């Protein structure tokens, strides 16, 4: 029994640094997973104290991240001076176990798993957290097919000091990004590479740097970014090669990958209409003009919707809208430049907001301006309590004076929606806030 509340039942996983138990929370009557840190018997007191700090730090980091594709930390009780992580229990197999049991997986299934992991990591990056050990063993595949990322034990937040120790490196050599293998500071782009290497392994059935158990040889290959091109990835090939580019600045962001991988996993849901793809230039201009007029008329209604506030949205359509309405990440159509000094932070503020909801509603509420808070916090919390699986599918970007456009997918009462919103931004005491919310489109997508 731990902390007079958590009764350990049986061991379900672990490694050199810790052991994970299936446990009962006897206070709330639910099944949880309990992760205990294991200390080597020959550790010095200084190293043992470092390990305790690292474990406590893991708990703080993991508790900061609330996302439906990340394992949730519920509690961190003390057990004879050692912190124990009490976590969500997910009946699952790790991707490492799935790969060993089934062999390589089909590209579209890999894309679906990758989109789940990328969504959770994008939320972590928005919160300033870099995972640093993305690998098949740290992605769990639930019985319903949902993938969740776990083990932020060697993660590093942008505002925390590192506890990995001098001269050490964090991560598993077989999945390290080149810069991490060279001892440089890992970044969000390093996580992108490691997720690419993970997806490579499960779609190819082999490790990117070869199957050798020689750790130094793996580090050498990782530092050089040397891997064989994928042979079985099919439609995933291009995205894998971009994720595993040698230079970090040339890799896509995790938020972009979550959208792209979701489209690869289910192309029918995300397809564009052929007339828009093959129409002549004049027809395209006409369609764009019509769409712009519709958006202007819709936005002038002043309708507020769930993207921020949870108030009613316009009646949804039952088919996908034309791509100019829903596709907001096309680099060939850049957003207008900001017109105020505070504007460059507005898009980032919106990204950070969506990394908080619906898991951290108090923090989300604090990101709203007075016009939206006037609706009342109880109404805000009640609405968001009905929402799950929210993913930003159109990256936030400026479309006018202190106005950010964003597109989100979410599930409510078993129905999947896509909505595009224009968010009016203000700055108070140096903090960007979302002050107004106008829905410009709402579509049922599943």
Automatic annotation (TrEMBL):
Q: Has keyword Transmembrane?
A: yes
What residue ranges are annotated as transmembrane?
A: 276-297
Q: Any idea where the Protein kinase domain is? A: 6-264
For this UniProt record, the keywords arranged alphabetically read as follows:
ATP-binding, Kinase, Membrane, Nucleotide-binding, Serine/threonine-protein kinase, Transferase, Transmembrane, Transmembrane helix
What is the recorded name of this protein?
non-specific serine/threonine protein kinase
Q: Where does ATP bind?
A: 35
State the organism's lineage. Bacteria, Bacillati, Actinomycetota, Actinomycetes, Pseudonocardiales
Residue numbers spanned by region Disordered: 305-344
Gene3D superfamilies xref list:
Phosphorylase Kinase, domain 1, Transferase(Phosphotransferase) domain 1
Enzyme Commission no:
2.7.11.1
Question: What are the Pro residues biased-composition ranges?
Answer: 313-324
Q: What class of enzyme is it?
A: transferase
Q: Name one GO molecular function term.
A: protein serine/threonine kinase activity
Q: Which organism is it from?
A: Amycolatopsis acididurans
Q: Which domain of life is it from?
A: Bacteria
Under the heading InterPro entries, the entry gives:
Kinase-like_dom_sf, Prot_kinase_dom, Protein_kinase_ATP_BS, Ser/Thr_kinase_AS
């Amino acid at each position: 029994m731990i902390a007079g509340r958590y009764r350990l039942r049986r061991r379900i996983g672990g490694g050199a640094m810790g052991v994970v138990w299936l446990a009962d929370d006897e206070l709330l009557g639910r099944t949880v997973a309990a992760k205990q840190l294991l200390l080597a018997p020959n550790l010095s007191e200084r190293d043992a104290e470092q390990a305790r700090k690292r474990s406590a730090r893991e708990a703080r980091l993991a508790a900061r991240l609330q996302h439906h594709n990340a394992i949730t930390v519920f509690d961190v009780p003390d057990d004879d001076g050692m912190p124990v992580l009490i976590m969500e229990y997910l009946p699952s197999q790790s991707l490492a176990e799935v790969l060993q049991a089934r062999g390589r997986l089909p590209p579209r299934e890999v894309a679906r798993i990758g989109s789940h992991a990328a969504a959770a990591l994008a939320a972590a990056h928005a919160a300033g957290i870099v995972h640093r050990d993305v690998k098949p063993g740290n992605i769990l595949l639930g019985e319903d097919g949902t993938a969740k990322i776990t083990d932020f034990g060697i993660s590093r937040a942008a505002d925390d000091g590192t506890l990995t120790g001098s001269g050490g490196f964090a991560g598993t050599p077989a999945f390290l990004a080149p810069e991490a293998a060279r001892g440089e500071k890992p970044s969000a782009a390093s996580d992108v590479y490691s997720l690419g290497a993970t997806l490579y392994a499960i779609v190819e059935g082999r490790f990117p740097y070869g199957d050798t158990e020689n750790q130094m040889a793996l580090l050498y290959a990782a530092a050089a970014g040397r891997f064989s091109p994928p042979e079985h990835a099919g439609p995933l090939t291009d995205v894998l090669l971009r994720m595993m580019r040698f230079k970090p600045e040339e890799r896509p962001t995790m938020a972009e990958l979550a959208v792209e991988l979701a489209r690869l996993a289910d192309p029918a849901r995300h397809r564009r209409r052929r007339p828009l793809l093959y129409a002549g230039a004049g027809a395209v201009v006409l369609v764009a003009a019509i769409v712009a007029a519709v958006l202007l008329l819709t936005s002038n209604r002043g309708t507020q919707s769930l993207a921020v506030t949870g108030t009613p949205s316009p009646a949804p359509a039952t088919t996908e809208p034309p791509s100019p309405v829903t596709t907001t990440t096309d680099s060939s159509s850049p957003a207008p430049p900001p017109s105020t000094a505070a504007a460059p932070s507005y898009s980032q503020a919106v990204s950070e907001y969506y990394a908080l909801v619906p898991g951290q509603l108090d923090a989300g509420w604090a990101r709203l301006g007075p016009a939206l808070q006037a609706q009342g916090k109880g109404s805000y919390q009640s609405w968001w309590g009905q929402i799950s699986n929210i993913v930003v599918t159109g990256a936030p970007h400026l479309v006018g004076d202190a106005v950010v456009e964003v597109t989100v997918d979410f599930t409510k009462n078993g129905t999947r929606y896509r909505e595009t919103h224009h968010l009016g931004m203000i700055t108070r005491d140096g903090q960007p806030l979302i002050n107004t919310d106008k829905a410009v489109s709402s579509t049922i997508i599943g």
